[in-house]
Amino acid sequence: MTRATELSPDVVSRLCAWFEETELVSPSLSYAVFDRHGVLFHHGVGEFQLDGRAPGPQTIYRIASMSKSFCIAAVLVLRDRGLLSLDDRVAELVPQFRDPVDDAGEVQPVTVRMLMNNSSGLPEDNGWADHELALSRNDFLAVVEAGLGFAGLPGSGFQYSNVGFWLLGVIVEDLAGQGFERFARETFLEPLGLTSTGYKPADFAGDGELGDGIAHGYSSYDKGASWVSRPVVGGGIGACAASMFSTPPDIARWSAWLSSAFDPANTDDAILSRASRREMQRIHTVAPGAADRTAEPTLEAQGYGLGLYVEHDVRFGRFAQHSGGLPGWTSNMRWHLESGLGAVAFGNTNGLKLSLAVAEILRFVLDSVDEPARRIELWPSTVAAARAVDAAVRGSGRILDAADGSTTFSPNLLGDVPAEVRDARIAAAIAEVGGVLDADSTPPLDARLTWSVAPAHVTWTIPGRTGELECRIELTPTTPAMLQRFDVAVRTPTTPLSPVLRHYRPVV
């Protein structure tokens, strides 16, 4: 997006009241909406240290497993520097690690990529891992050397494994020649200006410019009637995957840097290449929906990318997101890959199920600004062909008149449907809408484009006296590009040519 998104007063009012009727019980909630320029809206409710103070934008919360995207980015930096391949065997990088053996006695190698996309076969381990974040590197490697159990064969399916990310932390330290936290700080946090993000409370001690302080973690066993303080467990081998603290503005910057890889105008490969950032944000392993998400009829696909969950939505396209949860804290961040619009929420108690609320907030904001699922930059040859076909339909009604100097027909076009048959179909469609309007009453083609799924494809309307026509063309991938498909139909709310839910917006 070229400029900051503007939220209307009605949208801001609705966001401020979002949790007023909530069933969530937490000492405090801090939530924000952002785009690639920064925070657009923030609101804090409750008391982040049970001392009467509501959280502000600079109040620091523990973000738990939202840390995993930072861990993955560290691995990809080393990959891009040529220090490892994602297909390297973990056992060759971590000698204490042993690959599983299948029923036939054959060794089944676990690769770095499998750890990154949660397909290693290592089982879900949150209950145990949440309390073992402070394990030293040596103690963790002793656990690995004693033998790890596997829930399935490597590459056979999704299992959310913290141990897998801890192994990645070991690999980063060995290849970088320094501790993980220092590597992350020097590689990401400082260059990106994430001044309120770190791995332990001591990272923020003694600096009066870091805002309000850190939200204390609490648990309740009586639905919020009383609160029990929870200690900060971390700073050990698990820091790379779950120990981070941050603020909404810093998460907005992190999100903007990741999602900017999908912005055609962005050319920044300085820290981590755009290709690697995009690699993080596509599905690598099909995964079931999170337990705290209700069924969404618009959800086409979901899975785990690299350190992020990825969802494909019929209306809004692709989202990246990740939750965090530890005893005393809950969090979720989510952003729209096309626009960079996102939302984040922090709470200072566990089990809050914030991912559903954040998803609803972001959908509400995207809908309020009519954000498309994708913007498709059309090829010049596609635009030229559309102009030629449009002129032919609105003029003579003869398809052959579209074969001008700028447009060449693919051999299949008239072989599939002869010119005389196409002309008859065009004439019938024009008659059904009472004839097309004259040139003075017809908006320019650029204003009549409706949707596209690729630079070689576009659909547009032609106004008639009693209705509208819809035309669709598609070009070949050859040089020069040739017109390989042309369809025309009378436009109705259910026209097969117009999947209105997708909101793919063509750009000339």
From TrEMBL:
Organism superkingdom: Bacteria
Pfam families, per database record: Beta-lactamase (PF00144)
Residues in Beta-lactamase-related domain copies: 27-352
Protein name in the entry: CubicO group peptidase, beta-lactamase class C family
Species assigned in the record: Agreia pratensis
